[in-house]
Amino acid sequence: MNLKGLVAVSGKPGLYKIIGQNKSGFVLESLDEQKAKLIVNLTTAKLASLEDITVFGDDDDIKLATIFENMKSSASIPDPKADGTTLRKYFREVAPNHDEERVYASDMKKIITWFSLIKDLPLFTENPEGEAEAAQSEAAVEPEPTAVEEAKPVKKAAKKTKKAE
Q: Could you tell me where the Low complexity compositional bias lies (predicted)?
């Protein structure tokens, strides 16, 4: 799953893809059907990259990508507007070690809404760039050694002599 370039903007619903940058901020495109363009000023809005978001866990924080992977393999996803107990029961399945005291129902609703926005996008099935490069390097076969060419003698530069005047 490749979440690179996807961001959530504080105060704005939905998710956005970064399509450019200008001197005062970023140019974003919404991931919904409208594909609305938005220019975000970095001094007034906060951007949260989906690949950097984690959820509080009992031992370690849980990456959002891991939760999305578990949600992808889940049989049914509850409605984001469901009650808190239904959401908590579902989250115990997809994020079994989440900290139930610090992960609120509003957080779970937001994650389920984000998942419903990006689950049909092609980038949802892509590998992140780092994993893709690692897979390519593992799959690469080293070429067989070829016969080594003999070293050619290096030509010496002709010395220039100065004419005596």
A: 133-148
